[in-house]
Amino acid sequence: MKQTTLLLLTLLLIPNLASAQGLQTFIVSVTKFLDTTVMPFLMLIAFLFFIINVVRFFVIGSSNEEGRENAKNLAIYGVSAFVLILIISGLINMIVAGLGFDRVNATDTISDYVKRRP
Question: Which range of residues forms the domain containing residue 82?
Fold first, then answer.
């Protein structure tokens, strides 16, 4: 487990070290990846889980009381997971915005000696 974690961490940090990016740019890149890729994928999985259990409740297990109860409980878990994913996404964005990392443009490279004029 330790080797897998170390290997994964190394693979994630090598591009960051090779391009000599700062920590702020790395955090912006990670949060952008979470917002644009991971969170929509998790929301899709939770939605599909909910839909599958609704179909199980109304169509497949409509004659079996135990099957209906099981599908109803799993549908509630799907809705709960969807809400939890939205809450976690909001918390991540709130923390990143509160720390000021959202103001860093990940694609903008500028020398320290060049001052921007307002």
Answer: 43-106
Nearest Cα to Cα of residue 35 among 108, 99, 91: 91
Token duo for residue 10? 């190394």
- Write out pLDDT tens, residues 56-68: 878 876 778 888 8
Work out how many domains the chain is built from and give that number: 1
Alpha carbon distance 92, 84 (integer Å): 12
pLDDT in tens, 34-57: 788 888 888 889 888 888 888 887
- Residue 46: other Cβ atoms inside 10 A: 20
Tell me whether residue 93 is in a domain: yes
Instruction: For 106, list phi and psi in degrees, rounded to 5.
Output: -70, -25
Helix 65-99 and helix 23-33, axial crossing angle in degrees, nearest 10: 150
**Tokens found for residue 90:** 């909001």
